[in-house]
Amino acid sequence: MTGDSGRRPSGARRPTVVIVDDHQLFRAGVRAELAAACEVVGEAAAPAEAIAVIAAAAPDVVLLDVHLPDGGGLAVLEAFRGRADAPAFLALSVSDAAEDVVPMVRAGARGYVTKTIETPALLDAIARVRDGEPYLSPRLAAFVLQAFSAPEERADDELDQLTPREREVLHHLARGYPYKRIAQRLGISPRTVETHVGSVLRKLQLSSRHELSHWAATRGLLGREE
Amino acid sequence: MSARLGDPAWRATAVTGLALLAALALALVAHDRGPRVAAVAVAAGTLPVVALVLVPRAVRHLRGDAGRSLLLALPVAALALALLVVAGLDGRRAVLLLAMAALGAAAGVVLIGSELRQRTANAGRRAARTPWQRLTAVERVRSLPWQAGAGALLIGWSALVGIGTAGPRLSGSGVAWTALLIALIGLGALVLVLVPLLVGAAARGDRDRLAQAREDERLRVAAHLHDSVLQTLALVQRQASDPAAVARLARGQERALRAWMAGEAELDAATLGGALHATVDEVERHEEVEIEATVLGDRALDEAGRALVAAAREALRNAARHAPGSAIVVFAELSRDGAAVWVRDEGGGFDPARIPSERRGVRDAIVGRMAGVGGEAAIDSSPGAGTEVALRLGDAIDRSASA
């Protein structure tokens, strides 16, 4: 939905993709959907298998289900955290609840889409994260806005705050504007919009805001981190 | 036998029966006289209570399975009466008084036990009501604990008579001291019996309430699933030949289920957020479009809120008709002090200065509606750049003005 229809993946090569989901039927469905625009180089049903497959296939993008047996998608993200060979992760789930969405992004996913997403929007999201850009659905942007809107006592830490510009960009994303139109409306370049969204994602990953920590804690993320 | 000892009512009856027998035996050994008139008056006062309350209750319990343990009360009462008659004929007034006191105390304990049992038994059968009603309301039992009250009165009366009779004899008589000791032991036994009874009743009540709460929750979930998911599945089966209709049904149901699982207001919409979700759902179904709606916060649904929902419905229909096939996104920020809703489509857009006449009517319906309740509506569109309708109420207007 944030998709910018005029956009094309950089480079002529089709993006290589690994699909991680514990439902075989779903993997088959996604594989068929992606066939025209991507090259599916691997599939996995559980975190351990996924880590091996990803390391072997070295894809551009990993479509990662949130709810997996034995640690969930978070386990896969943790395994690649900080690694130079880490691919771009696009989290994929039936759930769009904040407590599922936010921990995945905090753990390093570059984007998050729900499984009901239309094929063109999914392809756009894959192309975006492959190019190193963040992909926030309007709903995820709204959640992030909400998390950063709550009053915070330790407001001196800039990681716990969004700048007015970042807030504005996020607000437009929540309202369904694609990057290009946000750039037009705010009088800045699309590249600057991407930078703002990227810095929001960074803050999302590094901030110690209570709302974010709480969401992360409900998914057991902080326990492994500290 | 052990099963019977586990029954609080049986324990109560057994202990009071033993206490009664001990008191009678002691009184028979003691030699003394009291005023005949007082004894007759006390007898006249007690016997009707025993005859009218204790005996009918015992008989009624005998008919029910639960009350069979009270069988013991009958021989005890009969023995007590027999001793009473013998002692009375023998002229031992003190014995008569003590016997009356013991009988009265026994009747009191039986009454209290019976009341407790009825109340705890009913607690399990009671249907779900408010927590307060669950605590207080009793099915098929008077709301006032008159049985327990009568029982307490009887015990109090017995204690007074017992003390009045035994008190003057306490000076130096070993037998009297023994009597007092036995009375104290009897009292202690009573406490021992009654306290577990009360605690047990409270615990059982808690357990019942917990089980009831679980059952309530299950029924609530079942009712919701029946009204929503099962209905949709039935519709899907009937419309299996129409893929578009099936997809629409599945999508509407999915959104409703998500909102419900997230604890958002149910779709009967007592809040503005709930009403917005319901409206999105409705437009999606009627116009056969897909709408992505995110609502942050919530507020009560007042008249201004209803106008806002109506304006949002117009904006959504407008987007569905004039931007076919494009994504429609709804974003709402609601709080107690204000509300802001954005409805956006990625369609062709138009030049607001040159609105076609048939669209002006819709625009007036949106802008006019919001102005009518002190709100504000802004339409932002240009050819090729899609359309966004912003609807604001309360402090959201001030914020947009200062921004």
From TrEMBL, chain A:
<dbReference type="InterPro" id="IPR039420">
    <property type="entry name" value="WalR-like"/>
</dbReference>
<dbReference type="InterPro" id="IPR016032">
    <property type="entry name" value="Sig_transdc_resp-reg_C-effctor"/>
</dbReference>
<feature type="domain" description="Response regulatory">
    <location>
        <begin position="16"/>
        <end position="130"/>
    </location>
</feature>
<dbReference type="InterPro" id="IPR011006">
    <property type="entry name" value="CheY-like_superfamily"/>
</dbReference>
<keyword id="KW-0804">Transcription</keyword>
<protein>
    <submittedName>
        <fullName>DNA-binding NarL/FixJ family response regulator</fullName>
    </submittedName>
</protein>
<keyword id="KW-0805">Transcription regulation</keyword>
<dbReference type="InterPro" id="IPR058245">
    <property type="entry name" value="NreC/VraR/RcsB-like_REC"/>
</dbReference>
<dbReference type="Pfam" id="PF00072">
    <property type="entry name" value="Response_reg"/>
</dbReference>
<keyword id="KW-0238">DNA-binding</keyword>
<dbReference type="Pfam" id="PF00196">
    <property type="entry name" value="GerE"/>
</dbReference>
<dbReference type="InterPro" id="IPR000792">
    <property type="entry name" value="Tscrpt_reg_LuxR_C"/>
</dbReference>
<feature type="domain" description="HTH luxR-type">
    <location>
        <begin position="155"/>
        <end position="220"/>
    </location>
</feature>
<dbReference type="GO" id="GO:0000160">
    <property type="term" value="P:phosphorelay signal transduction system"/>
</dbReference>
<dbReference type="GO" id="GO:0003677">
    <property type="term" value="F:DNA binding"/>
</dbReference>
<dbReference type="GO" id="GO:0006355">
    <property type="term" value="P:regulation of DNA-templated transcription"/>
</dbReference>
<keyword id="KW-0597">Phosphoprotein</keyword>
<feature type="modified residue" description="4-aspartylphosphate">
    <location>
        <position position="65"/>
    </location>
</feature>
<dbReference type="InterPro" id="IPR001789">
    <property type="entry name" value="Sig_transdc_resp-reg_receiver"/>
</dbReference>
From TrEMBL, chain B:
<dbReference type="Pfam" id="PF02518">
    <property type="entry name" value="HATPase_c"/>
</dbReference>
<feature type="transmembrane region" description="Helical">
    <location>
        <begin position="175"/>
        <end position="199"/>
    </location>
</feature>
<keyword id="KW-1133">Transmembrane helix</keyword>
<keyword id="KW-0472">Membrane</keyword>
<dbReference type="GO" id="GO:0016301">
    <property type="term" value="F:kinase activity"/>
</dbReference>
<feature type="domain" description="Histidine kinase/HSP90-like ATPase">
    <location>
        <begin position="307"/>
        <end position="393"/>
    </location>
</feature>
<protein>
    <submittedName>
        <fullName>Signal transduction histidine kinase</fullName>
    </submittedName>
</protein>
<feature type="transmembrane region" description="Helical">
    <location>
        <begin position="144"/>
        <end position="163"/>
    </location>
</feature>
<keyword id="KW-0418">Kinase</keyword>
<dbReference type="InterPro" id="IPR003594">
    <property type="entry name" value="HATPase_dom"/>
</dbReference>
<dbReference type="InterPro" id="IPR050482">
    <property type="entry name" value="Sensor_HK_TwoCompSys"/>
</dbReference>
<keyword id="KW-0808">Transferase</keyword>
<feature type="transmembrane region" description="Helical">
    <location>
        <begin position="70"/>
        <end position="89"/>
    </location>
</feature>
<keyword id="KW-0902">Two-component regulatory system</keyword>
<feature type="transmembrane region" description="Helical">
    <location>
        <begin position="37"/>
        <end position="58"/>
    </location>
</feature>
<dbReference type="GO" id="GO:0000160">
    <property type="term" value="P:phosphorelay signal transduction system"/>
</dbReference>
<feature type="transmembrane region" description="Helical">
    <location>
        <begin position="95"/>
        <end position="116"/>
    </location>
</feature>
<dbReference type="InterPro" id="IPR036890">
    <property type="entry name" value="HATPase_C_sf"/>
</dbReference>
<keyword id="KW-0812">Transmembrane</keyword>
